[in-house]
Specification:
With about 290 residues, the chain is of the alpha/beta class. It has a domain of about 200 residues: Uracil-DNA glycosylase-like domain (Uracil-DNA Glycosylase, subunit E), CATH 3.40.470.10. It contains 12 helices and 6 strands. It has a 6-stranded mixed β-sheet with strand order 1-3-2-4-6-5. α3 runs parallel beside α8. The longest helix is centred in the first third of the chain and has 22 residues. It is globular, with a radius of gyration of 25 Å. The protein starts with 8 loop residues before the first helix and ends in an 11-residue tail after the last helix. The structure holds uracil (URA). The site of uracil has 13 residues, from α7. Uracil (URA) binds next to α7.
């Protein structure tokens, strides 16, 4: 690949257009960093410990240095170190979220939380929209560019489709509560990494507890995988009612196809329509037919 310095004006414009089309819309540094390679790199050699009691030398240079004791404990593999870091962040998120007394307190704790690096690249926290305490809560994946600018979830094209989906069963944003698994925009709208999702999970779980909805709807696979006891993919699991614990209650929950996916695959709207009608029937008083968790 040509170095950037060798590119003509047109070549540079084409390289920029290529990156933009791939979803890159933010420059974080002048040089690229291979973060995967960083995790794969072996840990740097540690200095050997000195002998605890060196033999007296009477001022002469030592002729014999005792070999450093061989440590019996295995060195922590890079993956183990990463897992330990993730666990520490998750524990700190859990402690913070559990202490949140109400929505404002939860929001303030998220604003102060430094365990998710997405906060450094996002414009602002995208916390919620709709009515706190609504009968139905929708949980999406993560904010996109529009949401990042406005500070409200689902206000871009996918959000406009969500509004039309709600309207089709007589709902609007004053009747539902909306949030995301991850409240900061991932650069280029990429899917949040498992680490990012794990760091934010205790906060969205507390947000669901505070909203205390009677029905929980997960929009898309990442939300479904984070919140529902499912093993299969979204196309197989969508539309199935499952019980999930929210606070002290068991609440019916269902995964639906994400509106951003429906924009790309409009033929799948018929499945979304089926799920919306199932939601409407339960809102009208029908008992949801529960599926067993896998
Ligand atoms: N997609 C989501 O999952 N959430 C938003 O807020 C916007 C788009």
């Amino acid at each position: 690949m040509a170095a950037m310095d060798d590119l003509t004006r047109e070549g540079l414009a084409a390289a920029l257009a290529f990156q933009s089309n791939a979803g890159v819309d933010l420059a974080l540094d002048d040089a690229p960093h291979d973060r995967f390679a960083e995790f794969a790199r072996p840990e740097p050699a540690r200095p050997q410990p000195r002998a605890a009691f060196p033999a007296p030398t009477n001022g002469e240079p030592p002729t014999h240095v005792a070999p450093a004791p061989v440590s019996k404990a295995p060195a922590r593999a890079p993956n183990a170190a990463l897992a330990a870091d993730i666990a520490a962040v998750a524990a700190s998120a859990q402690a913070q979220a559990a202490q949140a007394r109400d929505f404002e307190d939860l929001r303030a704790r998220l604003e102060a939380f430094d365990g998710c690096a997405l906060k450094n690249t996002a414009t602002q926290l995208v916390f919620e929209d709709g009515a706190r305490g609504a009968q139905v809560m929708f949980v999406g994946e993560a904010p996109g560019a529009e949401e990042d600018r406005e500070g409200r979830p689902f206000v871009g094209r996918a959000g406009q489709l969500l509004d039309r989906m709600l309207a089709s069963i007589g709902l609007d944003r004053s009747l539902v509560y909306i949030a995301n698994i991850v409240p900061w925009r991932p650069p280029g709208n990429r899917t949040p990494t498992p680490q990012e999702a794990v760091a934010c999970l205790p906060f969205i779980k507390r947000q669901i507890e505070l909203c205390a909805p009677e029905i929980l709807i997960c929009l898309g696979a990442p939300s479904m995988q984070a919140l529902l006891p499912v093993k299969d993919g979204i196309l197989k699991s969508r539309g199935k009612w499952l019980q999930v614990p929210i606070g002290a209650r068991e609440v019916p929950a269902m995964a639906m196809l994400h509106p951003a996916y429906l924009l790309r695959q409009p033929l799948q709207k018929r499945l979304a329509w089926r799920d919306l009608r199932a939601l409407k029937r339960v809102l009208d008083g029908e008992r949801p037919r529960m599926h067993d968790a896998p």
